Amino acid sequence: MRKFGLPLLAVAFIGVDQLVKAWTVANIELHASREFLPGFMSLSYLRNYGAAWSILQGQQWFFTIVTVVVMIGLVWYYVKNIKGNLLTLFSLSLMMAGALGNFIDRVRLGYVVDMFQLDFINFPVFNVADMCLSVGVGLLFICILKEESNGSKS
Questions:
Q1: What's the whole-model pTM score?
Q2: Could you give the count of Cα atoms lying within 13 Å of 103 in the half-sphere of its Cβ?
Q3: Rounded to whole angstroms, what are the CA distances from 30 to 4, 39, 54?
Q4: Please, which residues bridge with residue 44 across strands?
């Protein structure tokens, strides 16, 4: 399960990300918004030509290079830890899914489709791939902290 199940899970998250993006493009006009969870979240259709908070807009070559380097690092770290902590492997799988989900958009469209807008706070609109990246990074951070605290007790 560890070797092949988690990468397959990453492929499933990429599929969900691309399906949600396709649904958004087909059902919501560009720059329009629909109420989804009243008072909490709306669905919007935005094109992000940059990274988080639309920084570095139009630098697709930069994002391509960064994504390739990050993916090489994630795959290397995954293989290195293949017999390690399942939560670490899960976090790496989420990060791979997020990186590839947005990479597919950048290569195919020249921008990333974003759709989830939090209504209770001023926060950038995001997508499923962004959620995978964020959760994956958070989980990996927790795993690293746990490893360090376990190692320091020895």
A1: 0.88
A2: 18
A3: 38, 22, 16
A4: 33
